[in-house]
Design goal:
The complex is a heterodimer of chains A (558) and B (202). Chain A has 558 residues and is an all-alpha fold. Chain A contains 16 helices and no strands. The chains are: A mainly alpha (558), B mainly alpha (202).
């Protein structure tokens, strides 16, 4: 890259109706960085809503009887909690948030392929979120059938709340599909000349795989929900056994989306971790090519395992066999990715930053969630713990211990790029400590509860489970408290944190090769062509491969 | 190391700043095609549900899967012909004969409207309503969802037909509007053929 020595005045921006300054974050901005931050901040607001709902659930479950809220309200709260956390927090933040901010940098572009579609996709989210939450206040209250909305339960609970739930999820699904189309076009077709697919940072591959899942699976959920709303509004009988319909068809169609949805939530997290670890370990990402093939294998396998959620729904034996085997196979590409991350850390020059520590906590917790996942794929075990707290614990180890930890790691990693200021590492460590302890205290004991037969989604339980439930509630309280140091840190550092400079982590990926925060068009001058995004730890002297031990290969950084 | 040295990038300004704007490739057709894949998956879900219902859910006594074939067959011919007339329209566009192009566009739109009319006629002559039985509900949901696509398609054809009256709006080199509507229209046609085979012939 050639730098001209004569400083050139800031290029005058083209006249535009777009507001500048902080106002643009409340506008229909087409800048991918603004949209990315809109997704992240909006997602965090909904995270606090969903967290408050989780607080209601854990408060209710602190005692075995239904005393804090009524049973109907409890059902509404757990439905809203699941829907808000999945569709308004995790999916928008790991896809839309970091995806919009980072992907154009990674492909060497000034924006996404379809900036206007991008803004439309974001601005569908706040109204549908408000629609969902406001359904609590309509006649009959919010939907009570859980985030799965299984009929016949969703047909017999109050209809208004259920219809508003369907409308909201349809809008959010539409937003997700628009985002997915945009990511596929940007990654496959919008790369700068000379940048080959196999040179892209791993997050691009993760987002490509995720977006393929979004485009293939989300429309099926949309179609299913349209049929469900016909059942509710027009009294057709698609999923109503009383009218000759079939509830299991709903479950098949629902899980055809909602199992891939797990990968829609977790593949981007895999990608983000693959960006963070090499930077803070000062080593190249181990096994780049196997990472790429693992992601694509997870995409393909993720589409053909949905019925493992339905082992107690009267599925025939051949189907159980097929879905058990296919599900167990997913452990192979996922395992490859874990070994690659561990090998990336191995003998690296680890900087124990908060971002790094959150990533390591992710690895440990996600492995645990993965192991319980393989256990749940086995029919005899699944029949035993189906719809118990074991499933709740497994699921939260995947989406919270997995994805949410990565979201926090990513905030600590990219906050200097977003704002130009560093976060406070001490507060970050406190946040990490409280979150790890609170999370494991909250969800670890739930495995035991489930194995001993406590059903999920019920406001009352056997008094024998009281103590363990109270442990879990204390953990939830700690998780709530852990948000405080994070919030203080984020707000305080935005105003008075030390200046970060362009590249505080000495990273090599293209988003760091510009100012912090980046200019409107990402780079002043031509975009840098980064052909080796993980080229850490190289030195001039070649190593004799015949005599070197594995240790020499990466311990010789200059 | 092939990456740009980190220090070199700090505060870098180059003389050719903002000159690479013309490089954006036109990806709109790619986006439309991806959207149609997604839309096709919605239909795939409906078809899967319909086939499963037929396989495992018996209809109540006295109801049947038999449908009249005459009207839908005429409709199928109308829709297939409209795909060819649209193809003809874009041939004329490529030859810069905008008058003929607009004529064929109008013919395609009218064929689409005729299809919708035929569909309406069929709806009003059928012996069952939306909630009569599972097959009836599925029939109306599938044909209704497809009919919605035809309605939108006919409207979009009329829009590009209206836009094409301005000279220079669509050229052989730059005609995204017509190309996108054409792809969509062929997609709706193919979906109908599958739907026709599954609902009427199976």
């Amino acid at each position: 890259m050639t730098a001209s020595l004569t400083p050139i005045a800031e290029p005058t921006p083209a006249p535009s109706l777009q507001p500048s300054g902080w106002l643009r974050y409340f506008s229909f901005s087409l800048d991918h960085k603004v949209i990315g931050l809109q997704y992240i901040v909006c997602g965090f607001l909904f995270y606090f809503v969903g967290g408050a709902l989780a607080g209601v659930i854990r408060t209710e479950l602190a005692t075995p009887i239904s005393d804090f809220v009524s049973r109907e309200v409890y059902n509404q709260v757990l439905t809203l909690h699941g829907t808000v956390m999945i569709f308004l927090w995790i999916v928008p933040v790991v896809n839309g948030g970091f995806g919009n901010y980072l992907i154009p940098f990674y492909v060497g572009a000034r924006d996404m392929a379809f900036p206007r579609l991008n803004a439309v996709a974001f601005w569908m989210i706040p109204p549908s979120g408000l629609l969902l939450i406001s359904s609590y206040f309509v006649h009959g209250g919010a939907a009570q059938s859980g985030w799965t909305a299984y009929p016949p339960l969703s047909l017999t609970t109050p209809a208004t709340g259920q219809i508003l739930w369907i409308l909201s999820v349809l809008l959010l699904g539409g937003s997700s599909i628009f985002g997915g189309i945009n990511f596929i076009a940007t990654i496959v077709k919008f790369r700068q000349p000379g940048l080959k697919m196999m040179m892209l940072p791993m997050y691009c591959w993760a987002m490509l795989g995720t977006s393929i899942l979004v485009v293939l699976a989300t429309p099926v959920l949309a179609g299913t929900l349209i049929l469900l709303s016909l059942d509710i509004v027009a009294h057709t009988g698609f999923f109503n056994p009383g009218l000759g319909g079939n509830v299991v068809v709903y479950q098949h169609l629902f899980w055809f989306y909602s199992h891939p949805a797990v990968y829609i939530m977790v593949l981007p997290a895999f990608g983000l971790v693959s960006e963070i670890l090499p930077v803070h370990a000062r080593k190249p990402l181990f096994g780049y090519v196997t990472m790429v093939y693992s992601i694509m294998a997870i995409v393909i396998l993720g589409l053909i395992v949905w019925a493992h959620h339905m082992f107690t729904s009267g599925t025939p034996p051949w189907m159980r066999l097929f879905f058990t085997i296919a599900t167990a196979f997913i452990a192979v590409p996922t395992g490859i990715k874990f070994f690659n991350w561990i090998a990336t850390l191995w003998r690296g020059r680890l900087a124990l930053t908060t971002a790094m520590l959150f990533s390591c906590a992710f690895i440990i917790q996600f492995v645990f969630g993965g192991i319980t996942g393989v256990a749940l794929a086995q029919v005899p075990f699944d029949v035993h713990v189906h719809d118990t707290y074991f499933v709740v614990a497994h699921f939260h180890y995947i989406v919270y211990g997995g994805t949410v930890f990565v979201i926090f790691a990513s905030i600590y990693h990219w906050y200097p790029k977003f704002t130009g200021r560093m976060l406070n590492e001490q507060l970050g460590h406190l946040h990490l400590l409280l979150t790890v302890i609170g999370f494991n205290l909250c969800f670890g004991p739930q495995h035991w509860l489930g194995l001993n037969g406590m059903p999920r989604r019920v406001a009352e339980y056997d008094p024998a489970f009281t103590f363990v439930n109270q442990l879990s509630s204390v953990g939830a309280l700690m998780m709530a408290i852990s948000t405080l140091p994070f919030l203080i840190n984020v707000i305080y550092s935005a105003l008075g944190g030390p200046m970060a400079g362009n590249n505080p982590w000495r990273a090599l990926t293209p988003e760091w090769l510009t100012s912090s925060p980046p200019p409107v068009e990402n780079w002043r001058g031509a975009p840098p062509l980064v052909t080796e995004p993980y080229g850490y730890g190289h030195n001039g002297s070649p190593i004799d491969l015949q005599t070197a031990s594995g240790r020499d290969l990466w311990s010789t950084e200059p | 190391m092939t990456t740009a040295p980190i220090t070199a990038s700090e505060g870098t300004t180059t003389a050719d700043a903002h000159l690479d704007h013309g490089h954006h490739p036109d990806l709109r057709m790619f986006g439309v095609a991806t959207f149609l894949v997604a839309d096709g998956m919605t239909f795939a879900g409906f078809f899967a549900a319909y086939l499963t219902f037929r396989a495992v859910n018996p209809l109540p006594e006295g109801s049947t899967y038999e449908l009249e074939l005459l009207m839908p067959t005429i409709n199928t011919v109308l829709l297939v012909v409209s795909s060819f007339t649209f193809h003809r329209a874009s041939k004329e566009l490529m030859a810069s004969r905008m008058g003929a192009c607009r004529g064929w566009l109008l013919v395609s739109a009218l064929l689409g409207v005729a299809f919708l009319g035929g569909q309406m006629l069929e709806y009003f002559t059928l012996p069952f309503g939306l909630t009569a039985n599972l097959f009836a509900s599925t029939f109306y949901a599938l044909t209704g969802f497809h009919g919605l696509h035809v309605t939108l398609g006919a409207l979009m054809i009329l829009i590009v037909w209206w836009q094409a009256r301005q000279p220079g709006k669509f050229t052989p080199q730059d005609h995204f509007g017509i190309a996108a509507v054409e792809l969509y229209w062929h997609f709706v046609d193919v979906i109908w053929l599958v739907l026709f085979a599954l609902l009427y012939l199976l």
